[in-house]
Design goal:
Length: 388
């Protein structure tokens, strides 16, 4: 039945929400949605999904050849997908609508050093409000690993589903022990949000994403139920050597499986490839003020009462606070226009054409051939750099 999973009192509001999605395209972050579908977490926290298995991130640095490293990058990447795309279903019963971050919203956190893997730190800044764009950096200094990326979404509606095209990319830099470095370009899959009719949305991935670097082009193809394996969340990843571009490998490697469970080698290797049945490690949030407190633009401080309202079912509080924040931000933008002094980003500088993207996307099917990017200013807050 339509709206089966929707609380009876919110069914009308759910169907108007669906109608408004169907009739708009681009950015649905600002559409008003019924309370049951709201998440108390802002999109600025989502980059933490990249590192909930910090040992797999750290392991990239332990690869002795470019082939070992390329496989470690692929394994880490595939192992993040379960967290990125199923966490809300697992913890809240369905996909939810995240809080729409304010311009300049910040999130800082870390995963502790353990068994010599090094401390991993995370910094996120909302670099644009309209359209929403989130920039982030994740670094394991001890292991010489740094991931810098940004993401935005373009949404459309097709035969009852929301289609989300992810815009943006990430670059992983790996410092090599012998000197020099390797860089990997990562692109992102397309999302399809199904289950809307019932009020129980969930994500399936489709099309493909790429990992290019270390002398390999990695193509990850995503399929859902009814495609090549017939199972939800299926993928097939092919690593093809790119002669003359850093690597020395000559053979192709293929792994196949389900990204939320496990996979195995089907060409160029044997046995198990990845397995995410084990526990993940949620990030520890850190305030950036000298006192260790969170500043007014840090996401958990900014949205504190909205999140409390959503968590405790006090939607009057949530909506009053949300309106207050939105009005404050609107006023801030007006003041900036009046004074001619625009909002200054804290950690990133935008560039129009990312040379690393352009170089690595060459000779691949990655489109477009160039993208903008946000360059991290290396200004980690002191509170994150302590106790390395
Ligand atoms: C953000 C970047 C992360 C991966 C990720 C996971 C879930 C996506 C989210 C991204 C962007 C916003 C998103 C969300 C799922 C639902 C939500 C597309 C890509 C939209 C805005 C809300 C739709 C509302 C329905 C739940 C009704 O690395």
């Amino acid at each position: 039945q339509p709206g089966d999973a929707v609380p009876v009192a919110q069914r009308g509001s759910w169907s108007s929400f669906l109608k408004s999605i169907a009739s708009m395209s681009g950015d649905l972050s600002s559409l008003t949605a019924p309370p049951f579908i709201l998440s108390p977490i802002s999109l600025t926290e989502y980059p933490a999904y990249w590192c909930e298995r910090p040992e797999l991130f750290a392991a990239i640095a332990d690869g002795k050849t470019s082939e070992e490293r390329a496989l470690a990058v692929l394994k880490w990447f595939i192992s993040t997908l379960k967290g990125q795309y199923t966490t809300r279903n697992e913890s809240a019963g369905s996909e939810k609508k995240p809080l729409n971050p304010a311009l300049g919203e910040l999130f800082y956190g870390y995963w502790p050093d353990q068994d010599g893997r090094g401390k991993t730190t995370l910094l996120t800044e909302q670099v644009s409000h309209h359209p929403p764009i989130t920039a982030y950096v994740i670094e394991n200094e001890k292991k010489g690993l740094k991931l810098v990326g940004h993401n935005a979404q373009k949404t459309s509606f097709s035969t009852g589903s929301i289609i989300v095209k992810q815009i943006g990319h990430a670059v992983l830099t790996v410092k090599l022990p012998a000197g020099g470095e390797e860089q990997y370009l990562l692109t992102l899959p397309r999302l399809r949000i199904d289950g809307l009719w019932y009020g129980a949305p969930y994500i399936e991935l489709s099309e493909q994403s790429y990992i290019v670097g270390g002398g390999f082009v990695g193509v990850i193809e995503y399929k859902g139920k009814g495609y090549f394996s017939g199972k939800s969340h299926s993928f097939k990843a092919t690593l093809t050597p790119q002669p003359g571009r850093g690597g020395s490998a000559t053979k192709e490697i293929v792994v196949e499986g389900t990204w939320h469970q496990n996979s195995k080698f089907t060409t160029g290797g044997h046995g198990s490839f990845h397995d995410v049945s084990g526990p993940k490690e949620v990030v520890t949030a850190v305030g950036a003020e000298a006192s260790g407190e969170m500043g007014p633009m840090e996401t958990r401080k900014l949205w504190e009462l909205v999140a409390k309202g959503i968590r405790e079912g006090d939607f009057e509080l949530a909506s009053r606070e949300k309106t207050r924040i939105e009005n404050e931000m609107r006023q801030r933008r007006k003041d900036e226009t009046a004074s001619g002094v625009p909002w200054a980003l804290k950690h990133f500088v935008p560039i129009a054409n990312d040379p690393v993207y352009e170089e690595l996307a060459k000779h691949t099917k990655i489109a477009p051939s160039t993208e903008d990017a946000y360059v991290f200013q290396e200004n980690w807050p002191q509170t994150l750099r302590e106790k390395k």
